[in-house]
Specification:
disordered N terminus, two-stranded antiparallel sheet, mainly alpha, Growth Hormone, Chain: A, about 210 residues, 7 helices
Length: about 210
C-alpha cells in the first residue's frame, strides 16, 4: 500500500477516531449482555435469545479476514469508513427492531461491520504511527477493552432500568458519527500498489525436433 499524503498526518486526531471505533465494537459486546433479559421479555424470545450474541460473533469472525484483504486491495481508509457507517446503520436497525428475527438479522449485519472495525483499526496504526510508536499505540487499544468490560455492563443496566434497552444500540450512533468525521479528516488515504511486473524470462519457441534434410 502507498500513502497519497507526503507527510505523516497528525497522530492524535487519527488515533482518537480509531480508539472511538474500537470502543464501539468492544462496548457492543458487553453493554448488550446486561439488557438481554429485558430484550427477551419485550420481544418474546427467551428460547432464541442466545442468537442475539451468537449472530454478532459468528458474522464478525467470518468477515474479519475478508475485510483485511479488501483493505489491502481497495484502501484501508475507504473500507474503514464503509465499515463504520455500516456499523452505525446496523446499530440503528437493532434499536428499532420490532421482533427477535429483526434484531438477530441486524446483529448479524452489525457483526459483519464490527469485524472490519477491529482488523482495519490495527492495520491503520501502521499508516499513522512511526514503527517505534506502533506498539505503544496498539497497547492503548488493550486498555479500551478493559474500560469496555467495566463500563459496558454498567451502561447496559443504566439504559435498561432508566431509559430503554434500545439505547444500548442507539448510543453507538452519535459516538460513531464523531469517529466517522474524525476518520474522514485525519486518516491518510491509502491506495493499492500496482502489481509487480513479471520476472519470468520469455521462453523461445524451438521446434520439438530438428527438421530432416533430404
Amino acid at each position: 500500500m502507498t500513502i497519497e499524503v507526503p507527510l505523516r498526518p497528525a497522530v492524535r486526531p487519527a488515533m482518537t477516531a480509531l480508539v472511538l471505533a474500537v470502543l464501539l465494537a468492544a462496548l457492543d459486546q458487553t453493554i448488550v449482555a446486561t439488557a438481554l433479559p429485558r430484550i427477551a421479555r419485550d420481544l418474546g424470545g427467551f428460547r432464541d435469545i442466545a442468537w442475539i450474541t451468537a449472530s454478532y460473533l459468528l458474522a464478525s469472525t467470518a468477515a474479519t479476514p475478508l475485510w483485511g484483504k479488501l483493505g489491502d486491495l481497495l484502501g484501508r481508509k475507504r473500507l474503514y469508513l464503509v465499515a463504520t457507517t455500516a456499523f452505525l446503520l446496523a446499530s440503528a436497525l437493532c434499536g428499532l427492531a420490532q421482533d427477535l428475527p429483526q434484531l438477530i438479522a441486524a446483529r448479524a449485519l452489525q457483526g459483519l461491520a464490527g469485524g472490519g472495525l477491529i482488523v482495519l483499526t490495527f492495520a491503520l496504526v501502521g499508516d499513522i504511527a512511526a514503527p517505534a510508536d506502533r506498539g505503544r499505540y496498539q497497547g492503548r487499544f488493550g486498555s479500551v477493552y478493559g474500560v469496555a468490560s467495566i463500563a459496558g455492563p454498567l451502561l447496559g443496566g443504566l439504559f435498561t432500568d432508566h431509559l430503554s434497552w434500545r439505547w444500548a444500540f442507539l448510543i453507538n450512533v452519535p459516538v460513531g458519527l464523531v469517529a466517522v468525521v474524525l476518520a474522514a479528516r485525519a486518516l491518510p488515504t491509502t491506495v493499492p500498489d500496482p502489481p509487480p511486473a513479471s520476472t519470468t524470462p520469455a521462453r523461445c519457441c524451438w521446434p520439438a525436433r530438428p527438421p530432416r534434410w533430404s
